[in-house]
Amino acid sequence: MIRDKRKSLDKATLYSYQGAWVKKVQDIKNSENENERSFPVRALINSDKNKFDYDDKIISIGFEHGF
């Protein structure tokens, strides 16, 4: 079941209109490893709530990307 859910997430990130490229923002000055580079990965961005003063989103991304 877990493998099937992961397979669905991977397909959805590629083919869904909610799929997007995301990139982790890192502080280079306070980073432990200065050679560490962040690269963009695919994720699902689902809108949860739209309020007047803020916009909540739910991001679905694989655990191995470290977000």
Keywords:
67 residues; alpha+beta; 3 strands
Structural overview:
The chain is an alpha+beta fold and 67 residues long. The protein has one domain. 21% of the residues lie in helices and 30% in strands. It has one helix at residues 2-15; strands spanning 19-22, 41-50, 55-60.
Task: Write the SSE topology.
Layout: H1 2-15, E1 19-22, E2 41-50, E3 55-60
Overall mean confidence score, pLDDT:
81
Number of strands: 3
CA radius of gyration is 15 Å
The number of helical runs is: 1
Going across the biggest sheet, name each strand in turn: 1-2-3
> Structural class, from helix and strand content?
alpha+beta
Uncertain ranges = none
Count of spatially separate domains:
1
Beta-sheet strand percentage? 25-35%
The helicity comes to 10-25%
How far is the N terminus from the C terminus?
A: 23 Å
The biggest sheet amounts to: 3 strands, antiparallel
H and E order: HEEE
Describe the global form: flat
